[in-house]
Amino acid sequence: MAAARFCLPVLVLVLAALALTHGMRGAGPKKCCFRFNDIPIEKEKVVDYVKTSQRCSRPAVLLKTVAGRQLCVRPSAPWVKEIISYLSAEGQSSSM
């Protein structure tokens, strides 16, 4: 009888913990940047850009190059602003 009284609260606690951790997995942003490329690249080599989520600790822009690479860059850099303006004028922008 004592074992039954002990098992039910433990089972409820385990299920609650599983539900909580499962719900937290999908809550975060898809991609955040922690290291940045500070070397300017030519705007003709960039085909698209994506702004990272506001939930990321650092604001960033992901530039997709002609070669298919993604580079994390700082949105405040003047050369990045120029690329964003160039791509936005062509209608190729998106956001995460």
UniProtKB/TrEMBL annotation:
<keyword id="KW-0145">Chemotaxis</keyword>
<comment type="subunit">
    <text>Self-associates. Also heterodimer of MIP-1-alpha(4-69) and MIP-1-beta(3-69). Interacts with CCR1.</text>
</comment>
<dbReference type="GO" id="GO:0006955">
    <property type="term" value="P:immune response"/>
</dbReference>
<keyword id="KW-1015">Disulfide bond</keyword>
<feature type="domain" description="Chemokine interleukin-8-like">
    <location>
        <begin position="29"/>
        <end position="87"/>
    </location>
</feature>
<dbReference type="GO" id="GO:0008009">
    <property type="term" value="F:chemokine activity"/>
</dbReference>
<dbReference type="InterPro" id="IPR036048">
    <property type="entry name" value="Interleukin_8-like_sf"/>
</dbReference>
<comment type="similarity">
    <text>Belongs to the intercrine beta (chemokine CC) family.</text>
</comment>
<comment type="function">
    <text>Monokine with inflammatory and chemokinetic properties. Binds to CCR1, CCR4 and CCR5. One of the major HIV-suppressive factors produced by CD8+ T-cells. Recombinant MIP-1-alpha induces a dose-dependent inhibition of different strains of HIV-1, HIV-2, and simian immunodeficiency virus (SIV).</text>
</comment>
<dbReference type="InterPro" id="IPR039809">
    <property type="entry name" value="Chemokine_b/g/d"/>
</dbReference>
<feature type="signal peptide">
    <location>
        <begin position="1"/>
        <end position="23"/>
    </location>
</feature>
<dbReference type="InterPro" id="IPR001811">
    <property type="entry name" value="Chemokine_IL8-like_dom"/>
</dbReference>
<dbReference type="Pfam" id="PF00048">
    <property type="entry name" value="IL8"/>
</dbReference>
<dbReference type="InterPro" id="IPR000827">
    <property type="entry name" value="Chemokine_CC_CS"/>
</dbReference>
<keyword id="KW-0732">Signal</keyword>
<keyword id="KW-0202">Cytokine</keyword>
<dbReference type="GO" id="GO:0005615">
    <property type="term" value="C:extracellular space"/>
</dbReference>
<protein>
    <recommendedName>
        <fullName>C-C motif chemokine</fullName>
    </recommendedName>
</protein>
<keyword id="KW-0964">Secreted</keyword>
